[in-house]
Amino acid sequence: MKNVYVLSAAMSKYGKSPLSARELALEASRKAIEKAGITPSDVQGGFVANAFSLSEKQGHLGPIVMSGLGIPDVPASTIESACSSGASAIREAWINILAGIYDCMLVVGVERVSQLDTITATTYFSFGSDYVFEGACGASFPGLYGSIARAHMTKYGTREEELASVAVKNHDNALKNPNAHLHKKITIDDVMKSPVVASPLKLYDACPFSDGAAAAIICSEEFLKRLNGGKPEGVIKILASGRAGGTGALHQRPDLTTLKAAVLAGREAFKMASLTPKDIDFAEVHDCFTIAELVALEDLGFFPRGEAAKATLEGRTTLKGEIPINPSGGLKAKGHPVGATGVGQVVEVYEQLNHKAGERQVSDARIALTHNVGATGGSCGVHIFSSFD
Amino acid sequence: MKNVYVLSAAMSKYGKSPLSARELALEASRKAIEKAGITPSDVQGGFVANAFSLSEKQGHLGPIVMSGLGIPDVPASTIESACSSGASAIREAWINILAGIYDCMLVVGVERVSQLDTITATTYFSFGSDYVFEGACGASFPGLYGSIARAHMTKYGTREEELASVAVKNHDNALKNPNAHLHKKITIDDVMKSPVVASPLKLYDACPFSDGAAAAIICSEEFLKRLNGGKPEGVIKILASGRAGGTGALHQRPDLTTLKAAVLAGREAFKMASLTPKDIDFAEVHDCFTIAELVALEDLGFFPRGEAAKATLEGRTTLKGEIPINPSGGLKAKGHPVGATGVGQVVEVYEQLNHKAGERQVSDARIALTHNVGATGGSCGVHIFSSFD
To answer: Checking CA distances to B81, which of A114, A202, A310, B383 falls within 20 to 30 Å?
Structure first.
């Protein structure tokens, strides 16, 4: 299999933004192009990861972004897999490079939802679930992930304080990330006392609605060779990509305590990279709710079933722990601009593997994993990256 | 470059449908799987081409479709490039097979818009243009294509009767297509007397709002070898794929009488196939308005600039003409369910190259081209296909 690289990755600040999706996408794209040391005319194709731009009255974002970059002839499609749109777009760029179609592609993920009030935004998000059986019946994502949390508590004895410890850790990490949406130190007590959203999940168990964009330049070995003698500053390697689907609706699953799509995608990625969870120095996982991080850690094999909660409470997943999880702050505190999220995870990997993550740097980071889930596991993309050497 | 094949292609009837997008997509997918002589479990990955499913409160169509087919583990993303979503999805499946990621993929394009009234549907469609500069200013697609028509009339002396002759031909072809939305014989006089929508375009210059779905099974040579000794019934070959972008908005273009994305995509496809327009036996082109077909014929090189209108009026693009254009009835009369359209073009190619198109059969059809435009040319995908032998 050919080598494929992330030449650069960059993002806007996540949070409430006055900018439109197109402006956010252009900001992140321009930063990534500049950081790569290339010009827009080097980009031969692109993907835009986005889920809800119709709410802003703009579809067909590909030509909008490419026109804004001054390269309107360059084709770009939008890819949507709900909250895992970003991983899907990274994967399709990797496949385009593997197939030899292009040598240099731009992937930009973007979402703007702050034009919607909270109820409308929650409704839009629920379009990512099986709306007929879930959203339309009042089961929006807090309720669905609440069911997953309750099932996990019942099966493994997971406690609400353990869930809360995920939020505390990710808020701590986000305090060290200038691009994070939430900069607020919280305690387990704060989480426990926050308003119940969908029992057992409380407000501080949930990620915020964020605006934001993240972009990456994905390229071939041939393209690299043209830049700085084949080893341009910052470049990292894509070791593997795994992807799988899951049932749209929760009621179609025999077990709520695992997302099969994540298990399958993780297995595919580890096999492709010839690695095991023990080889991973840190991971960015999809923690839209605190329970989601625990399920991710078990689905990916970082901890045995039923043991991720205790491990998190014990601090084994902090920046200085045995396997740092979500050093960026995760969806929980870095924020979750839906289409951007999976690409934003790659931005964190890029910064960490280049040892430029400042106060949140994971020491000796060489191999990293990203895990990006669509809805409640209707789809999942897992990627593994390494330093260039 | 590896050989890639269309193992089968099938569609729902186009028109007003009581079915939801998911039901339409499943109908077309099941037909394509059955026609291919495979089972759902042979499908390893998929793409759903769709633009407006959020208007039906359902995103993340990939897992919905795969769950409905009983193969929820199989990953599928939605691809959106406005009205060229279908061609984009076919292209990405071709690329996935080329890269060796999968051996057998399902591509299904689908749209349901009849839950929207005409004004709302027109507004949704305008989200495919550059909404800030066009839709929001009242320039919906009839107005934008009206501008293109006016420019073409001014530059080349194209006449309204010549535009009308495109509609007459495509309605004639659709009369022979049981899956077409419109089954109504019309005359040039009927078109000329129909209500003006956006001068010089009249109601009968425009395609209808259609619901519908179309699906194709795309596979590798290795997969074919497992079926019927390597030559399963009906299989056709993808000779080439071209794709390019264009400016989102019309005001950014020096010339309105050509869609640069189509010129570039066509050139790429012809070069890849080592063919010229003279080698094509028939073409399905993107005739969302009558003017669009004329521009397509000139952009693709079937006729010199300014000569497609006269050629059409003279009958040179009819079923018995020198280069039959839109034997299916085209978007104009077969219908235009946005996400389905580019995949539906492949259904027509599949039937024609298998000499199973009944009364609308193009004699001796061996090589065919599809041309699928997003919005006013923000993107364009061109594919060339041949019979198996």
So the answer is: A114
Distance from C-alpha of B287 to C-alpha of B295, rounded to nearest angstrom: 9
Active site residue A336: yes
CB A222 within 8 A of CB A36: no
How far is CA A72 from each of CA A14, A106, A272, B378, rounded to the nearest angstrom? 27, 13, 36, 8
**What DSSP string runs through A70-110?**
T-TTS-EEEEEBTBTHHHHHHHHHHHHHHTTS-SEEEEEEE
The whole model's pTM is what?
0.98
Q: Could you say which of A152, A181, A336, A371 is catalytic?
A: A336
Nearest CA-CA distance, residue B161 and chain A, Å: 33
Residues of B in contact with A63 (CB under 8 A): 130, 245-248, 374-375, 378-379
State the pLDDT at residue A389: 78
ipTM of the complex: 0.98
Q: What is the CATH code for B4-113+209-230?
A: 3.40.47.10
What DSSP line would sit under A208-254, residue for residue?
PP-BEEEEEEEEEHHHHHTSGGG--TT-EEEEEEEEEE--SSGGG-S
Which residues contact residue A15 at a Cβ distance below 8 angstroms, ignoring those fewer than 6 apart? A181, A210, A211, A212, A335
A130, HSE (Cβ side, Cα atoms, 13 Å): 21
Q: What is the CATH number of domain A4-116+209-230?
A: 3.40.47.10
